[in-house]
From TrEMBL:
This is Glycosylated lysosomal membrane protein. The gene is GLMP. Signal peptide: none annotated. GO terms for cellular component: lysosomal membrane. Keywords: Glycoprotein, Lysosome, Membrane, Signal, Transmembrane, Transmembrane helix. It is a single-pass type I membrane protein. Belongs to the GLMP family. Interacts (via lumenal domain) with lysosomal protein MFSD1; the interaction starts while both proteins are still in the endoplasmic reticulum and is required for stabilization of MFSD1 in lysosomes but has no direct effect on its targeting to lysosomes or transporter activity. The keyword Cytoplasm does not apply.
Amino acid sequence: MCGSVECSWGWGHCAPSPLLLWTLLLFAAPFGLLGEKTRQLLEFDSTNVSDTVAKPLGRPYPPYSLADFSWNNITDSLDPATLSATFQGHPMNDPTRTFANGSLAFRVQAFSRSSRPAQPPRLLHTADTCQLEVALVGASPRGNRSLFGLEVATLGQGPDCPSMQEQHSIDDEYAPAVFQLDQLLWGSLPSGFAQWRPVAYSQKPGGRESALPCQASPLHPALAYSLPQSPIVRAFFGSQNNFCAFNLTFGASTGPGYWDQHYLSWSMLLGVGFPPVDGLSPLVLGIMAVALGAPGLMLLGGGLVLLLHHKKYSEYQSIN
């Protein structure tokens, strides 16, 4: 795929084909997704929590380790036409039957061209990217107003963790009321990235009325021996690696939440090289053109009126 070019994390500047990315995702997710590991499903009790406190997540319940989940046969969900597949699982030991009617699903999809998904947050993707969608469906929460989250571990580049950046925009056409984009970058070039909108959804299909805030904690170094060992990660990146971890939490103690319909979904984009850059949408460009052009048209019209008015009086001939 890469010829004679030496490739580092994220294959450096060598972009693998969508089929290769898809194959890697099928073997790697959900425990070694291109160097990222989703370690645990977190749950917090936010019943008596105010949004004004410093840490509004609430009392944590014991987390669900994804290493203790039983996963479906991936061949049942393979779709070569859309280059997608879904990993669906539940805890192997579930004495309280929390997941009796529920599951945690990871849907992975590669892309063959630049476009946007039909569902929010509609991140712009290219042929060098893959999308990971996480959905918690039907599981019984352990509290009346439970908040959920994910603990994610990822490879660092050298001794440092990937850099986390926030980008802000005035454009929210593709994700209504969301003006921010979060991303992880590996290296200054960069050689790889992860990108997401800080929003999750408590209904399907997602919309503004079911949007939940998504918060990411700062990255911190993680001990390799405390992580589930992924043969995919070891095969691609070696056994001596520095890992970093961070938490993603979804929702707040007020407003919509998982408790509404026992549904939660969130998605991110993974890729090599530079991340896609969103331009302003046609709708926003049209609004800006009208907003900026209207005053100019008014000035132009006023100038023409004054010019014609002045010309009319200049043609008057004095009787003297």
